[in-house]
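Submission sheet (multi-component)
Chains listed below:
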Amino acid sequence: MARTLPILLLLAAAVIFPLSVRTIFLEVGIERQLGTVQKIFYFHVPLAWIMMLYGVVCGIAAGVQLRRQSRMAEAIAIAAGEMVIVTGIAVLVTGPIWGHASWGKAWTWDARQISTGLLWLVFVAYVLVRRYGAAGSERLAAALAIFGAVDVPIIYYAVKIWKTTHPSNEVVGTLPPEMWAALWPALGALLATATALVAVRTRQELVEMDLDDVWVEAEDVKGEAT
Amino acid sequence: MTANAMLWAPEAEAPAAPAAPAEGDEYEAVEGLDRAGIECTRAFEAVAAKKTASDYAHIVWAYGVLWSLFAIYGVMLWRRGQRLRGDVQALRARLDAKK
Amino acid sequence: MRLSRQAWLLAKNDLRQELRDLELVATAGFFTLVVLVMFGLSFASLPLRAQPLAIPGMLWLAVAFVGALTLTRIFDRERESDTLRALLTAPVDRLAIYASKAAVTLVVLLGCCMVLVPGLSFLFPVAGVFAERPGTTAALVVLGCTAYAGVGTLFAAGLATSSGKNVLLSVILYPLTSPALMWSLVATRALLDGHPDLPTYLVQLAALDVLLLVLAGWLFESVLVGPGRSGTAARRARAAHRR
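Outcome: structure written.
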């Protein structure tokens, strides 16, 4: 099951992706105010959703890791954290590209841009602490991930509180149905890809943990034998 | 002589041409178009075409960045898998050597 | 012994030790003064119109820097004499340790703000609003610094048990405290501009404080002590070392 899940997901993504491209570029009309470049929106928004989703997943997994000392949870947390970084880069790059084409300004310092960048930084810190932290720092990293997950709704809320140049949250709610129809396939393709990669990474992490155990045992046995 | 006759022939025929529409209505005078209007329209179309081209460039960049990020991460995972496989081999060799 | 009494005793102990040699307070205070002077030098020529935009940033950046500086040393005494272990084995509620350390950090930060806020009013005429509305300013400063101290203490504690990789503290601290700092920034700007939404911002800041303190307090024990098993890290360290 663990082996086949990523393959199935990637196949699903490979099938959905051409459909999604067709829907986005051939079926949906050109948005009147923003023009053709608005089509970036169909990938940018699902990516932001996926980033926040995996931020929350990482936080929850970290919580389970702390509570129950679960290895599986720890592996999922690490994989989800890395996926937040990857999708974060994608969101932070495609957003300014869209902004540059639409409004001439790539980085507008508005609340949502800042908040997404900060969330990204928190999870980069998470990965750094895991990689370079001293022996006991997994728990610290887990606490960091939990704080990061708590920040996810704060980001969403920040847009509502502050006046911002970012298209408001409500944009997604008021889309005409054909735009929703284009959004779902894109979300499907991206989510399948991201989940496949997370599944692979989780399994790699579990294997690595087991390997470490076996190495240590091998050394101990060797020590006893000699 | 023939050439000269031909060179001057149009003059003899020219007056006939404008007279033809009045008789048979074969040509329609174009209305509503003036040079300024046409130039204005062309200018607008040029702006729109430039925007579309720029938009497409941005779209291509955005999608390219996006998928290359996933691809790079995928490659990183693959290499990590290779490293782990090598590790397993080494461990296996170690255990076999001890037997 | 009740939790609050334990926390109070621990905090009192820390503060008393601090007052004995004044290292933390003196260096933090002097650092604040230096930062104030640097801000004055850098931004002296700001037009009057631009000052309300820059002053909140100056205030909260200074708080962030002093906070990071303080937090790297708040557990120093415990780390040097290895008394953290003793403290943890004592029949003291872990939450009391957290509360006392956070309180000490807060006291240091507030002390620095007492230098910062008048200093900024002195250097920049627009910041005179701080003097005109001292109650609101005090509330704002306390709320902002509490959020910072609450979050920072948790992570300083987590890093105190390791062999002192303090670089990681800065990497962790700035992104994590940024929501609190941003909210404080917006509130300060509202104060300077006389914006009517200021009470709303203050209430939201208070709510954020509560959220952060509860979360950090809840996580404190897990981070500091863990549930007792040696955990995967030690084995991995051994494995990596022997490979």
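Remark: Chain C has one domain: 2-242.
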